[in-house]
Prior knowledge:
By secondary structure, chain A is mainly α. Chain A has helices at residues 2-26, 42-57, 61-86, 94-111, 116-138, 143-163, 165-168, 190-213, 215-225, 227-232, 237-263, 273-286, 292-307, 315-329, 334-359, and strands spanning 181-182, 185-186.
Amino acid sequence: MVEQFQKEFRKRDLFYSIALWFLSLIIPDPQLHYRKEYGFRKRDLFYLMTILWLPLIWSDPHFHHLMVLAGIHGILALGLTLFLGYAGQISLGHAAFFGIGSYTTAILTTRYGVPSFFALWASALTASLVAFLIGRPILKLKGYFLALATLGFGEIFLVMVRESSSLTGGVIGIFDIPFFSFAGFIFDTFLKQYYLIWGVLVGLVLFSKNLIRSKMGRAFLAVASSEDGASAVGIDVARIKLGVFIIGAAFAGSAGSLFASVMSTANPETFSLNLSVLIVMMVILGGMGNLYGPIAGAIFLTFLIDGLSRYQEYSLPVYGLILILLLIFFPDGIGTRLRVRLIYLISYLGRKRRREKVEL
Amino acid sequence: MLLSVEEIVKNYDGVRALNRISLQVRKGTVKGLMGPNGAGKSTLFHLISGMEKPDSGRICFKEKEISGLPTHEISQRGVGRTFQTLQVFGNMTVVENVLTGMHMRIKGGLLSSGLWFPWIRTSEEVAMKEAKEILEQLGLFGRWKWFASQLSYGEQKQLEIARALAAKPDLLLLDEPVAGLTYPEAKQLAVNLSRLRETGLTLFLIEHHMGMVMEIADEVAVLNNGELLAEGPPDVVKKDPGVIEAYMLKK
């Protein structure tokens, strides 16, 4: 009987280890990515394959459309996580760069007939230029003050867009933006757009991964950890902050550009404070200091918003509630906390088993 | 003269932390800076490394004035330092901390790093090799994959020195390297410091521990209440009546 008991436990052990292995593929690891194993790994291949096959397996156009939105949010969250999760700086005006990207593309393509491929680059460039100009003064601030300053920037940009109606179309916005096209190929269905957006996102993830494992990534983390320590080894803290701010803005600008060419419209409603808060939530939800978490957060929240779209007028209180609950129960992100809990559980079960064995 | 501090004055809201201090550090020597708590030792280090600006006076490093420059530029000119309150990067591994110390010597900007050009890769690989060597020298190699926040206090202090060394400084400012260490750790540190000295590095260290300073330092300066009490070889300073009075009264 004792043997039977032990055998059962062994079987359960095997089950746990398989489950853990599987979960380790899905749940982003909070630490591993800046350990020595950088580069392209098994987990990345798993993600890539999922992205490639998912829309073909689940061929519902509404799902494709939501995944397009999730991908755009993912690009935004990825840019912000470099700034918030790695360099430890807060920004509540990230949506403004999204707006800058949207409007640059909208104006260039509808008024001047610029191909949307070039408009994408121009949008990223414009957003990063604006970030460069406002970054120097704003990034001297820290904590709450930085949050307030970026919040103010976002609101000022929104008012500017609404008021300068001759250029931006005011509250109504700009319509009939042509679909994204490249070398004669037009991305006019949700499925094509899905591959466009997620293709860009994969490229940006690879870029960020490289950045994180280089001296720049270490400088971001150093700035987040101790500014005195960073400057004592020769890191120009102000410059690093500005650099990561510009990269975040460029990501957001390209997300805005893609959004404009996918949705064919650009209007001020799409990048209010709502979006800024949403991006911060995605980053926090996914866990600070890793690259996949925010994308998971973006997917989750995009689907949640769609599910709650009937109650849109309550969206801000709901966001607030989610954010508070997250900060109470998952202060370092759901992915991170889940993994830690899981490891605790496994080790607890292991200990329990060993104890029982001794008693037997 | 590698470092010369000339007539430096620093006030904090009416308290004169440093009053017309002048001292020099010669190349290739070890200089100790002693004094009771609140004497202004750490303030002097902050002024040299640029974290604070002097009210008057000047600081010259390699015959060039550095007072007023931002911290990172002073560091790039060859002044490394450690901190009294630890400033290791707890969110990185031990070897990454050391690699961060090499920031200025590794190639790459934002774009070229993100695109991972071949020269970035080679530069990183060379740096990694060197970082491991530095860790080996300081006896931290066994912990290179650990997160810096997981290390003990003494190991974190060693790591801070390793990080400062990675920048290849000409002058290393050590702010109380022995404080808070256990006896074996302190002994290990003394061995490491004397080894560093043999490589030709100039050390300038704050230390309370009389025995260690007397053993390792070529020259000692004693501060008290922002005034320079005595300066000279350890044997001479030890017998200085002002120094004895300042130390005996405090202890």
